[in-house]
Amino acid sequence: MQTAASLDRMKSSFIREILAAASDPDMISLAGGLPDEKTFPIELLKPTIAQLHNDVSLFQYGPTQGYAPLVKHLNQLYQLPEHHKLLVTTGSQQGLDLIARAYINPGDGVAMEAPSYLGAMQVFDFVQASILPVVQLADGPDLEALEQCFANDKPKLFYAVPDFHNPTGVCWSLATRQAVAKLCVEYGVTLLEDAPYRPLRFSGESLPMVSSFCPDQALVLRSFSKIASPGLRIGVVSGPVQWIESLIKVKQGADLHSNVPAQAMLLGVLEHLEFEQHIAKVCDLYHGRYQVLLKALERLEPFGCQAQPVAGGMFVWLTLPDCDSFALAKYLIEQGVATVPSDVFYSAKKGVSALRLNFTNATPERLEEAVKRMYDALVSC
To answer: Where do the Aminotransferase class I/classII large domain residues begin and end (predicted)?
Structure first.
């Protein structure tokens, strides 16, 4: 049977291919954005799991919007305005997919920072959007380029990860957040703020969400994969009621509703008295590993490599002298280190030569060994 034209446009995920190679126990993977399994809140989950059998309704079909007690809790947690609503999704990736299918027609413009999250580019490419790359600077998108894009190309959406950006780890400044919100309102562009890494800040002061400066011109994606468990597959999208109602309609046709027992389990974790302490421990663990990796990467500076410091999240962006980042990443796999080449994060022309390195799913010893192997590989190149 002939595949749909939209599927033919979609490239396979290089990251997924790398993760397959990284399953080798001798491979040190700095590739996928995997949380450490030791951070999964199993002890916090146990009380809820033990009680699941007492509520048979959890195993029946549920409302598309989500498990009502979880929806209520999240409304209070996020302090949503009365004219806003949220939808529980099967991971925040489904939220992206629902938004693309509900609002993007072939040819509609979607502005994105360059580089940008590969999974978002795949989703928007699948619905045949016109991806409009905007150069990213040290504190967020190039505002002059963004305004020019808004004025000339008139995109429908601006997709962004302002807190600990994937792949670069950049965290937008307060001034940039306010300026972007102002531009979205002025030009009638919907901000799609993706915030999966926002809770993983391990240094510096937390900044307001960009959407807080343009709440009625924004949709917000949140994920619990990084702070609870990716296996639960629970995410949330929130925004003005009429926009969320359209997403609910699409979700009804997609999967009826997300896993109800998993939503109940997540609620149990979020309401647990030790949850905030759990998040603090996760951030401390990741901070320590980040410091180990950053220090180790100093060995690569004589080759023209430069690690960009971050204040949270899961990734370090290692810039390189101009080179074929695909070829380098494949060579490093042969040396037992999995990384992600920068080329996969650009929608069009080649961007900065770099590697995305994950520091959350390897021990300090493995991080140091990975950099040693990278050093040896660069020496032999």
So the answer is: 26-373
Three-state DSSP class for residue 140: strand
Phi-psi category of 60—alpha, beta or left, where left has phi over 0 and alpha has psi -120 to 50?
beta
| CA–CA separation, 365 and 371 (whole Å) | 10
Burial class of residue 243 in the structure, from the number of CB atoms within 10 Å of its CB (0-12 exposed, 13-18 middle, 19+ buried): buried
Backbone angles phi, psi at 275, to 5 degrees: -65, -45
Q: Do residues 329 and 355 make contact, with C-beta atoms less than 8 angstroms apart? A: yes
SS3 assignment, position 119: helix
Burial class of 276 by CB neighbour count within 10 A (0 to 12, 13 to 18, 19+): exposed
Pure H helices in the chain = 5-9, 14-21, 42-51, 68-78, 91-103, 118-126, 143-153, 174-187, 241-254, 260-271, 275-296, 325-334, 364-380
Tokens 């995410």: give the residue: 235
The whole-angstrom separation of Cα 191 and Cα 164 is 17
Cβ proximity of 70 and 76 under 8 Å: no
- Say whether pLDDT at 289 is over 90: yes
Q: How far is CA 152 from the centre of its chain?
A: 28
Residue 108: helix, strand or coil by DSSP? Answer: coil
At residue 343, what is the residue type? Answer: D
pLDDT digits (tens, 9 = 90+) for 65-124: 999 999 999 999 999 999 999 999 999 999 999 999 999 999 999 999 999 999 999 999
- φ, ψ of residue 239 to 5 degrees: the values are 165, -170
CA distance linking residue 262 with residue 59, whole number of Å: 10
Both tokens assigned to 319? 């810039």
The letter for the amino acid at 322 is D
pLDDT of residue 60: 96
In degrees rounded to 5, what are phi and psi of residue 85?
-150, 160
Task: Measure the N-to-C terminal CA separation of the chain; round to a whole number of Å.
Answer: 45
pLDDT tens digits, one per residue of 38-70: 999 999 999 999 999 999 999 999 999 999 999
Statement: the pTM of the whole predicted model exceeds 0.85: yes
Angle at 9 between CA 5 and CA 12, to 5 degrees: 125
